[in-house]
Amino acid sequence: MADVYDALGLRPAINAAGTLTRLSGCALPAEVAEAMRAAVRSHVRIDELQAAVGRRIAELTASEAAIVTSGAAAGLTLAAAAAIAGNDFSKMDRLPDTTGLAAEIIVPRSHRNGYDHAVRAAGARLVEVGVAERNRDPQAWEMEAAITQNTVAVAYCAGFSELPLEMVVEVAHRRALPVIVDASATLPPIAQLTAFTTAGADLVAYSGGKGLRGPQASGILCGRRELIASAALQMLDMDWNEDLWNPPPTLIPPEWTGRGVPNHGVGRAMKVGREEIVGLWAALERFVRMDEAAEAARLLAMARHIAAAVECLAAVEIDQRQPCRPRLELKLTVADHAIRLIRALETGAPPIFVGQGQVERGIVEIDPYCLGDGEEVVVARRITELLSRPT
User: Fold this and answer.
1) What pLDDT does residue 390 have?
2) Strand pairing of 327-331 and 125-129?
3) Does this model's pTM top 0.90?
């Protein structure tokens, strides 16, 4: 249905804001969409599909095991659930009620963010470490002092500060605690697929619908085998007869299956369909084959085209601190001008969405990552038209 959005009374938009969930993430590459279409033509056991795809993901992420999740936030919830319950079916059955259970997860104050709720959804209690002044990163001794008998893990959000992951891992592992890394928006570059596990992280959550250009409702949770097994058990459909339950041994350790079948877990609402699992796999294979230099050059050319068109009307700066993800900033005189420009872009034909994270400073952000071929021309022309009008 080429006109599916027309049929719903909606207007397809141009996404110049980046891989935002509220804007439906990236457009799917053709091979990913075709893999998803192929997947839905047949039935398959989901646990066996998770095991097969998980083996390949584990290989590409330098992990012991992996599963496909319904997004990075779901991965964080499952990671917290795994840290709390381990292989204890009775604890799995109680979550998110953690009354009387060890369920504290230490988090640097400088890493607190809106996705803390994903961790708390499993029943975890967050314990902040670090001082409020300047949002300073905690030191090793501060993290060590925060660990108690109720601590089950340490959380780390990649890119939020200069806090070395290696130091966090060292402190946590001295007390036999796993480190959970939120790496949702760290891809590309390709090297980030192995950076966190190589640094010692025990569980790493990635988004599938951002830099990987996979299905929007997909993600990766990779890391230590026993923790991934716990996460999988708390997400998969457990509607099995006890005598017939035979999960793949590469996903669920055989020694776990002799005690009966666990009930549906806290992650049951986060199930992943065969099309998302296969689509994520196809997107990941495409991602690791990508010519990073060529892709970076393509995105930079888009950013430069827009910059050249509007530089006589606004101060323009291209941020290349992340070579694989160049971004453009339009600096207007006052915040109200930026707000009016964004509103006019969003209500135009076609609607164009740009970044609004710094709009209060009069800055309009443009991320070319989700632009289709030729859409940079439309964006440049529309911004030029709007900025040329009298204020």
Assistant:
1) 72
2) unpaired
3) yes
Residue indicated by tokens 């230590």? 224
Collapsing DSSP to helix, strand or coil, 138 comes out as: coil
Amino acid letter, residue 123: G
CA–CA separation, 154 and 140 (whole Å): 12
DSSP symbols for 236-268: S-----TTT----TTTS-GGGGGG--PPP-TTG
DSSP code at position 355: B
Cβ contacts of 45 within 8 Å, gap of 6 or more: none
For the stretch 161-215, pLDDT in tens is: 999 999 999 999 999 999 999 999 999 999 999 999 999 999 999 999 999 999 9
Residue type, 365: E
Single-letter amino acid code for the residue at 255: E
Per the CB < 8 A criterion, the answer to whether 5 and 349 are in contact is no
Q: Over 60: is that where the pLDDT of 218 sits?
A: yes
Within 8 A by CB and 6+ apart from 3, the residues are none
What 8-state DSSP symbol labels residue 20?
Answer: -
Q: What sign results for the dihedral spanned by CA atoms 239, 56, 227, 129? A: negative
Task: Give which of 233, 252, 205, 245 is closest to 90, Cα–Cα.
Answer: 233
Q: Are 80 and 102 in contact (CB under 8 A)?
A: no
Contact 54, 228 (CB under 8 A): yes
Give the C-alpha separation, 93 to 141, whole Å: 35
Element (H, E) at 357: none
Pair of tokens at residue 180? 């959970």
Element (H, E) at 363: strand 363-366
Q: What is the CA radius of gyration of the chain?
A: 23
Question: Distance between CA atoms of 260 and 234, rounded to whole angstroms?
Answer: 14
First-residue to last-residue Cα distance in the chain:
41
Collapsed DSSP state (helix, strand, coil) of residue 285: helix
Contact 156, 182 (CB under 8 A): yes
The closest alpha carbon to 96, from 115, 118, 127, 122, belongs to 122
pLDDT in tens, 307-333: 999 999 999 999 998 888 999 999 998
- 4 CB-near residues (< 8 Å, 6+ apart): none
